[in-house]
Amino acid sequence: MPITVKNPIVEMDGDEMTRIIWKMIKDKLILPHLTIDLKYFDLGMKHRDDTDDKVTFEATEAIKQYGVGVKCATITPNAARVKEYNLKKQWPSPNATIRSGLDGTVFRKPIIVRNIPPAVRSWTKPIMIGRHAYGDIYKNSELVVDGPGKAEIVFTPAGGGTPRTVPIHDFKGPGVVMGMHNTESSIRSFAKACIQYALAEKTDIWFGAKDTISKQYHGRFRDIFAEEIATAKADLERAGIQYRYMLIDDAVAQIMKASGGMLWACMNYDGDVMSDMVASGFGSLGLMTSVLVSPDGKYEFEAAHGTVMRHYYEHLKGNPTSTNSVASIFAWTGAIARRGTLDGTPEVVEFCRRLESVVLKTIEGGVMTKDLAAIAEPRPGSHALTEEFIDAVAKGLAAS
Ligand code: NAP
Ligand code: MG
Predict the structure, then answer these.
(1) Is the pLDDT at 200 greater than 80, yes or no?
(2) DSSP readout, 177-194?
């Protein structure tokens, strides 16, 4: 008897190898066990191009409406992709569109499997990364300067008043220049989301920036974060949560010696880079989950990795692939469990925990994809192909 999920979940399909995995997960692990109303949006590259990217904005609105979404990895087109897919233009990153639409913060948490030892010996507990998902270089304006001239920052007050001008550089020859921004309300939402997440997960909070160099820009981040921490002081103390502010380079050095178990709050670019570093340190990008949380509690779940293009091209050539589906499976269980929590349906949450535990037991039992087989202890004699792993989980789930 399938379990009924009361309210809808927004499903966003994607590209390449992850799109293939996505369908297998849905058909073999989700739909046989749940009666579920999925509001489907196809964010595959071709459909985004066909709709002039409107589908991404519609999906974002749907997440706002229903409160829970699950997303497959998607191509962020570059010049090569424009050619490959014959695109009308270089559409923006769907993740960036959804993040700014929800004003959300992205949290990444590695899945810890007993027989996959971390690359950094001291990392015995997960290191969770909170990435501020608005602004900085992801919303920049930039240009290539082709010869001598002056670059300046000009701020013109909306209500009149004298514009403020700050020189950037007096170019003697060609160069490059970039302007970027952030907003106080977004930084505040970021700090608030980090505090909420740390309270829910009962973990310490680390925040790193480069305020010695960027006294105003990074300095504002440091100060706003400190203000929000001060506001939440009583709650944090009650939960035994410590807050540490560090220079970003100090934080990077400290993290390599820490045992984990903290939320590392990162500015946008740091979070982008450090989450990939932490993910590979814990084993594989295929073991890193990601959730976007808006200040008003809308959640969007996904795997942290991309579309695994290299594997897709092997697949197209008819070669067997061994692509890890674990983070994509946990995106589904994360979203469905969140739905179950909001709906007050514990049997739905229990199904998700059961599926997650079957995934871990499958790997701990020696059935795993190539990326994990290379780093597991003990090393399994062989690795599972993409579909073989999902089939093993489906079998374990049916028997559980
Ligand atoms: P990627 O898809 O994350 O894959 C990079 C490499 O990491 C793969 O070639 C593979 O290494 C390994 N890997 C990643 N996920 C894996 C998995 N589940 N199982 C096994 N190995 C895995 O990054 P990319 O190739 O740089 O990017 C491809 C596309 O994804 C790009 O168009 C990019 O725009 C997009 N992207 C989307 C998102 C998103 O939607 N959230 C995030 C990042 C990138 P080996 O080849 O060594 O096996
Ligand atoms: Mg990244």
Answers:
(1) no
(2) EEE----HHHHHHHHHHH
The pLDDT of residue 296 is above 80: no
Q: How far apart are CA 156 and CA 163, in angstroms?
A: 4
What type of residue is 132? H
pLDDT tens per residue across span 61-80: 999 999 999 999 999 999 99
In which residue are the tokens 């220079």 written?
A: 247
> Which atom of ligand 1 is nearest to 327's Cα?
18
User: How many CA atoms lie within 13 Å of 293's alpha carbon, on the beta-carbon side?
Assistant: 22
Q: Is 198 exposed, middle or buried (0-12, 13-18, 19+ CB in 10 A)?
A: buried
Cβ atoms of 283 and 212 closer than 8 Å: no
Considering every ligand atom, which ligand is closest to the CA of 25? 1
Q: Which residues line ligand 1 (CB under 6 A)?
A: 73-76, 95, 285-286, 302, 305-310, 323-324, 371
Q: Give the bridge partners for 288, in sequence order.
A: 110
Pocket test for ligand 1, best of 70, 305, 315, 371 (most atoms within 8 A of CB): 305
Q: Which ligand gives the minimal distance to the CA of 389?
A: 1
Bridging pattern class, strands 204-209 and 262-266:
parallel
Look up residue 368 and give its two tokens.
């795993």
**Token pair for residue 295?**
């200040």
The two structure tokens encoding residue 181: 């921004």
Q: How many Å lie between the centroid of ligand 2 and the Cα of residue 180?
A: 19
Q: Do residues 90 and 225 lie in contact, with contact meaning Cβ atoms separated by under 8 Å?
A: no
User: Which residues is 292 bridged to in the sheet?
Assistant: 106, 300
For the chain, report the end-to-end CA distance as a whole number of angstroms: 14
Ligand 1 center to 370 CA (angstroms): 15
Distance between CA atoms of residues 326 and 359, nearest Å = 7
3-class DSSP assignment, residue 167: strand
Q: What is the reported pLDDT for 307?
A: 98
Distance CA 376, CA 390 (A): 18
Rounded Cα–Cα distance for residues 196 and 205 (Å): 11
The atom of ligand 1 lying closest to the CA of 370 is 20
Q: Which of 191, 279, 294 is nearest to 243 (CA)?
A: 191
Query: CA 315, 318, 319, 323: dihedral to nearest 10 degrees?
Result: 20
Question: What DSSP assignment string belongs to 3-25?
Answer: EEP-S-EEEEE--HHHHHHHHHH
